[in-house]
Structures are given as structure tokens and as C-alpha cells.
Amino acid sequence: MRSTLENIRVLYFATNCAEPYVQIITVNNSKRRQSVCSSEGSEVGESEDDLLPVLCDHSQLLDQRHLERLAAHVPARTQGYPWQLAYSTMVHGTSLKTLYRNMAGLDNPVLLVIRDMQNKVFGAFTTEPFKVSPSCYGTGETFIYSFSPDFKAYRWSGENSYFVRGHLESLQIGGGAGSFGLWLDADLYHGASYSCPTFRNLPLSTQQDFVVQHLEVWTLQN
């Protein structure tokens, strides 16, 4: 089957997707949706750069190393598509309520990225935007991750379905047995990460109770 070629903007830290600083490269369209982790059906000489996301805004937290590891772990259906900054504490202030408001009306998977006061980077990928909900939401594609010190992704254990729960006063990701995989308060300032049955994870930060230095939420658009 003949594959098609497609021009894709690939400049990871452009401030706006429409600016002329975006580099245009031509890649095989069949590669765009392929997982970096997959060896089956991969083409010789394939570059991981072909699968890196296009960041439509500047990130204070994500560098090339972060992008390479995260791009390999998000679902294949989201790979190669633009990431749009939906919320940043440096841009929008520190308010969970504002975060929810910025998520309203969206219907895309999101990536939460946190850097704490110990300069540790960690977060979560969820299949639905964050919102206030009377019950848990999300799917088994949800995972939490940490770069502390090496990259580790904790996927769904199958033990429960406590993926995400949004309250006005807190955001909870993962749970069970009285603990949360990742928890943030209403000011997005204090957080906690404990081992939880949903992901059977280790704490994401070097301290189970941490203080947020900076936080970003990206929507993965398709």
C-alpha cells in the first residue's frame, strides 16, 4: 500500500503555532500514529523526532528529554498531534477553579505536568479534561508518571477505577485504601503523592507531601 507524505510543523517551543518560526518537515503519514515503543511494523531509520508532539505554546517545564519519554507512553491515537497549553500557574495564577474553567467545553485527553520545590517533575495523563464530578471518571489509558530521578510511568493496575475525581477543593488522581496517587489542593500549591491501588505506584515526588513550584496542563488535540 502506498503511504502518503504530509507536511508537519515541528518546532517544540514556538509561542504560537501560526508564527513563521515553525519548521516544516515532510514525514511519512504512516509514522505519525505509530508508537515509539512498537518494534512491530516499524520502518528502518525511523526517527523519534517524527513522533514528538508539536507544542503550540512555550513550556516552562517540558524539555526534549521529557517530550521523548512522554510521547512514547501516551496512547498511539494521540501521538503526533499538537499539544495546546490550557492552563499554567505562571499565566493563569494558582487556582483549581480557574483550571476547571479553562477545561470547560474541551473533549480531549490532557497531560498534567508539575514541578515541585525540589525541582522534581511528575504528573498524569488522563483521557478526559479535569472537571468537578460527583464520581470518578476516566479510562484505563490514564496513567501517572515521574522523572524522579528516572522516567517511570505507572499504568492502571485493574484493581479499581478511581482514575480522576474533581472537587472544588481538590483534584484526586488514583485512589483506594485511603490514599491518592496524586492530590492537589484548591490553590494548586500543596500536593501529595502516595502509593495507591489504582496504579500500584511509588510516590511521584521525593517527598510524599510536596509544594508546587509550577504546574501546566496540556490538551492533546487530534
From TrEMBL:
Name of the molecule in the record: TLDc domain-containing protein
Residue stretches making up the TLDc domain: 60-221
UniProt GO BP: regulation of transcription by RNA polymerase II; response to oxidative stress
UniProt cross-references to Pfam families, sorted A to Z: TLD (PF07534)
Protein species of origin: Muraenolepis orangiensis
PANTHER family reported for this sequence: NUCLEAR RECEPTOR COACTIVATOR 7, NUCLEOLAR PROTEIN 7/ESTROGEN RECEPTOR COACTIVATOR-RELATED
PROSITE patterns, alphabetized: TLDC
A GO cellular component annotation in the UniProt record: nucleus
